[in-house]
Amino acid sequence: MEMKTYLLLFGVILFFSCKKAEDRKCLKFAGDESERIVNVDIDIDTLFLYDNLYYSLIQGEEAKVVLSGGENLLSHINLDFSNGTLTITDENKCKFLRSYKNKIHAKIYVDSISYIYYEGGKELKSIDTLRSNEMRLIIRDGAGSTDLTLRNGYTSAIVTHGFGDFTLRGSTQIGFLNCNTNSFCDTRSFQVVDELIVKSNTVGKMLINANQTKLFADILQRGNIEYVGYPTSISLNSFGEGQLIDLNN
């Protein structure tokens, strides 16, 4: 019985070793540091970002994706373009066989982004300011951190569930912020001009900037909404143990 097991294991190893390392999804080393550039010839306004990549968003006229990391890993980062949407997933398997130091970075150069769906475990950040008419950010499941600098007319940022968090900087006319389950946020450097709607359904803390705006706050859990600045008006609906806290005092 043991001999059959060894022969089977040997056969599997021999089969996979016949492929080049960059062609194998599982049994391989990361390889030397390398770069893969994918030019984009369609307008992209929507992103679906998954898995444990380090994502950076850069606004510019030239649309492209620059992947960097181990040369044997990059060919299995899947980029799918469809109807103005870019979806990025990591098809590499057996990550437990490689060092946690084997990071894969994805720099995404776009002209204007209006929708981001993020389900990642590392980080999503912007390099400089992302300008658009609106930005709708959805964070789901992943425990990765998001840090974006925005300038637009409308911004919504929602963590549907999980341990995700987001930091926003810049400004918008109207803002909607919603944290659920164990998530949290910090938007103290994000100015909302007209009205800010904040919905806390989390045990985490929501830090916001309510200066010179109409603040509408709903508290449904034990997490606090804590604000800086001086709102022009406050409307509070409280159904949970959390508190609306003035940080100016």
Describe this structure in words.
InterPro entries: DUF2807. Residues 51-231 form the Putative auto-transporter adhesin head GIN domain. A hairpin with a 2-residue loop joins strand 5 and strand 6 (85-90). The relative contact order is 0.11. It is globular, with a radius of gyration of 22 Å. Helix content is 8%, strand content 56%. With 249 residues, the chain is mainly β. The chain has 2 domains: 27-113, Pectate Lyase C-like; 116-249, Pectate Lyase C-like, CATH 2.160.20.120. The chain contains 2 helices and 20 strands. It has a 20-stranded mixed beta sheet that branches.
What is the radius of gyration computed over CA atoms, rounded to a whole number of angstroms? 22 Å
Number of domains: 2
Biggest β-sheet: count, sense, barrel?
20 strands, mixed
Q: Total number of helical segments?
A: 2
Mean pLDDT: 89
Q: What is the C-level CATH assignment of the largest domain? A: Mainly Beta
**Helix percentage range:** under 10%
Query: Based on helices, strands and strand pairing, what is the structural class?
Result: mainly beta
Tell me which CATH architecture of the largest domain applies here. 3 Solenoid
> How many E-type strands?
20
N-C termini distance: 74 Å
User: What is the name of the CATH topology of the largest domain?
Assistant: Pectate Lyase C-like
The ordered string of helix (H) and strand (E) elements is HEEEEHEEEEEEEEEEEEEEEE
